[in-house]
Amino acid sequence: MKKEIQIYDTTLRDGTQGEGLSLSVDDKIKIACRLDEIGFHYIEGGWPGSNPKDKEFFDRMKHRPLKNARLAAFCCTRRPSTAVQDDPQIRALLESGVATATIFGKSWDFHVTQALNTTLEENLAMIGETISYLKEQGLEVLYDAEHFFDGFKHNSGYALKTLERAAGAGADLLCLCDTNGGTLPDEAHEITATVCRHFPGTAVGIHAHNDAGLAVANSLMAVKAGAVQVQGTINGYGERCGNADLCTVIPNLILKMDHRCLLEDKLSRLTELSRYVSELANLIPNTHQPFVGNSAFAHKGGIHVSALLKNPETYELIDPTAVGNSRRVLVSELSGMSNILYKIEELDLDVDFSHTNEETRKILARIKELENQGYQFEGAEASFELLIRKAFNTYRVPFTMETLRVIMEMKEDGTVYSEAVIKMRVDDKVIHTAAEGNGPVNALDNALRKALEDFYPEIPSMTLSDYRVRVLDGDRGTGSLVRVLIETSDRHDTWGTVGVSANIIEASWKALVDSLAYGLLKQKTEGERIPPPNHR
Question: Is 207 a domain residue?
Answer without folding.
Answer: yes
